[in-house]
Amino acid sequence: PVANATIIPSPPSHQVHAGDNVTLHCSVHVGSAPVTFTWLHNGQEVAQGLLLELSDVEVGDSGTYQCVATNQLGQDGHRVFRALSPELALEVTPGSPWVTVAAGFGGALSFLVLLMAVIVTWHWWHRISHSLPPIPLIPPAPPEEGEVLYTHVVVTKRAG
């Protein structure tokens, strides 16, 4: 028979914020397959299955959760065993507007830091490229007859 049903929450905290995702996993330490799992929220059946996935939780999702593990034994299958997990109290707190503002500010700050890095890099590259001596486009002396002439031309656009 099934025994020792437990709930493993993810995240492990029993207090979450509105908008978070929560997964509850039911397990049994003893029990022959097949084992079925039923989920209760405040004593009312809400789902079937090994996992209970709560997406985008709201304050109304607060309360107690339990899982009921069930299996059958015997050749006739009429002996039904149930194991009820201890209650898991889940508290969903409303999202704070300050958290949203801080996240928005953090994103804007990251963008500004990245923008400044690009500007500083461009300015540094621009100064370096303009501080190099110009490469003459005409060789200093005409080549001798039969001499191999290699020409390397670099064109840069200068401001102003």
Features:
160 residues; alpha+beta; Immunoglobulin-like; six-stranded mixed beta sheet; three-stranded antiparallel beta sheet; 1 helix; 22% helix; elongated
How far apart the termini lie comes to 87 Å
User: Compute the gyration radius: what is it?
Assistant: 35 Å
- The total beta strand count reads 9
N-to-C series of helices and strands? EEEEEEEEEH
Spans of at least 5 consecutive residues with low confidence:
97-105
CATH superfamily of the domain at 3-91: Immunoglobulins
- Strand percentage: 35-45%
Overall average residue pLDDT = 78
The outline comes out as: elongated
CATH topology-level name of the domain at 3-91: Immunoglobulin-like
Number of discrete helical segments = 1
Helix % is: 10-25%
Structural class: alpha+beta
At CATH's second level, what is the architecture of the domain at 3-91?
Answer: Sandwich
Largest sheet: 6 strands, mixed
CATH class of the domain at 3-91: Mainly Beta
Keywords: Disulfide bond, Membrane, Signal, Transmembrane, Transmembrane helix
Protein name: TITIN protein
Transmembrane segments: 98-125
GO cellular component, one term: plasma membrane
